[in-house]
Amino acid sequence: MDSDLFSRRRAERFAQLLDEASGGRRHHVRSRVDDELAALVAVSQRLTADRPDVKVDSEFRTGLRAMLVATAEREGIGTPAAKIKTTAAAGSGIRGSLLPAVTARRARARGAILVGIAAGAVALSGISAASENALPGDALYGMKRSTERAQLALASSDISRGQLFLDFARTRLDEADTVRDDRIGFGAVLDDMDADTRQGVRLLTTVAAQRSDPAGLEAVNVFVTGQRRAVSGLLDRTDHVERDRTRRSLALLDAARDRADAIACGLPTPAASDALGPAPGTCPAER
Q1: Average pLDDT of the chain, as a whole number
Q2: Are 247 and 198 in contact (CB under 8 A)?
Q3: Pairwise CA distance, residues 12 & 29, whole Å
C-alpha cells in the first residue's frame, strides 16, 4: 500500500473527526483507524476545553502565527477556487474533473488539522509556562519534561538539539541544587543531568568532526566551563556520599572538555565513537 496515500487518508479522517467533535456535520463513514484517532481527538478537546489560567507570551503567538501562515502557503490551504480550476484544466477526462474536489478536500483536511494544532499549541504553551519552575515530585514536573522532549522533536538540526540537551543539563543542575537535601532525589537528578550532558556533547562533537565546524566544540567548551564551576559549588553543600556522586559528574565534564580538545586538533574523523561522540586519538604535544 502507498504509505503516502495512507497518511493522507488518515489526515483527512482525523480532520473529519475533529470537525464532528466541534459540532460540524457528521460524515457517515467509518475507518479502521477511528479508534486510534479518537484518542487524539479526545486530547485535542481536553486541551481546548481545559485551558490553563496562564497568559500566553505575545512572542509565542507571533511565532505560531508565522509558522501557520507559512505552512498554509506551502500546503496550498486557502488557494482560490479559480486557481484550483486552472490547475485542473491541465488534466483531462475523469481524472481532471475529479482533481478540484480532491484538492479542495485535502486542503480542508489540512486546514482543520492546522486549527487543531494551533489550539493545542496555545493550550500547551500555557501549561508549559506553569510547569517551568516545577521540581521533581511536583505535579507538573512530567509536563516540564514532556515540553523538553517536544522542543527536541521540533529542533531543526543536530546542533540545535545538542545545544538544547546542554540547556536541559543546566536546568537539571538548578533542580539538583534545590533538592540537595533529598539524597535519592539529588542522585536521580544528577543522573538525568549527566544523560543530557552526554547526549548534547555527542551531537555537537559528531557534527564538528563530520563537518570540520568548530561551532559545536565552542558550545561544548562554554557549557563545560560554566557547568563545572556550578557543579563544584555543590561539593560544599553535600555529605560524603553525595560528594562522590557529584565528583562523577565533574569527571564527565572533564571528559567532555578533553573530547572537544581532541577533535579540535584536526585529527582525521575516527571510525570509533562512544557516549561522547567520535573518539579520536590523543592530540600531539605542542612544541
Answers
A1: 74
A2: no
A3: 12
